[in-house]
Design brief:
With 156 residues, this protein is an alpha+beta fold. The protein contains four helices and seven strands. Keywords: Acyltransferase, Transferase.
């Protein structure tokens, strides 16, 4: 698997993000969907990664700069054909190590509270994330769960 810094110019990546957004809207009320669209992911505050096996897109993940010490994870998605194959673990490890290399000290995320999002919450717990209150611009929302962790040593 190769994880690349991505400029979101590949149609396959855009389709994966559109699939991600469609699932978010299918599983949460519109006012509780916090996923970024492809244009928002092209912001200078966002670093976007895609994972590939040869020509096959496996998944994606972004990190959004919140402050000199704090980032947010965004747009974590594994392609349907690559589910349960470790793609999310590799992407998360890569993104967290990049954040550590850049000197960030804390990472936070927002995910859904519904059962659809349980595999994601379990993955984040495996990486040491704990539940927290809203951060950045977020507000309390029964459809959202907020998680964070401090960063330190690189992940292997």
């Amino acid at each position: 698997m190769e994880i690349k810094l991505d400029d979101l110019s590949n149609g396959e990546v855009i389709r994966l993000l559109e699939e991600h957004l469609a699932d978010m809207y299918a599983n949460s009320p519109p006012e509780s969907v916090h996923a970024l669209d492809p244009d928002a992911l092209k912001s200078p505050e966002v670093t976007f990664f895609s994972a590939w096996q040869g020509e096959q897109l496996l998944g994606c993940l972004a990190i959004k700069h919140l402050s000199a010490q704090h980032i947010e994870l965004k747009s974590m998605r594994t392609s349907n054909s690559a589910r349960q194959s470790g793609v999310a673990t590799h992407l998360l490890t890569h993104a967290l190590n990049v954040a550590i290399e850049k000197g960030y000290q804390k990472v936070s995320l927002e995910t859904g509270s519904q059962d659809f999002f349980l595999p994601a919450r379990n993955l984040y717990k495996k990486f040491g994330f704990g539940y927290c209150g809203p951060f950045a611009e977020y507000k309390e929302d029964p459809y959202s769960r907020f998680m964070s962790r401090e960063l330190g040593e690189k992940f292997v």
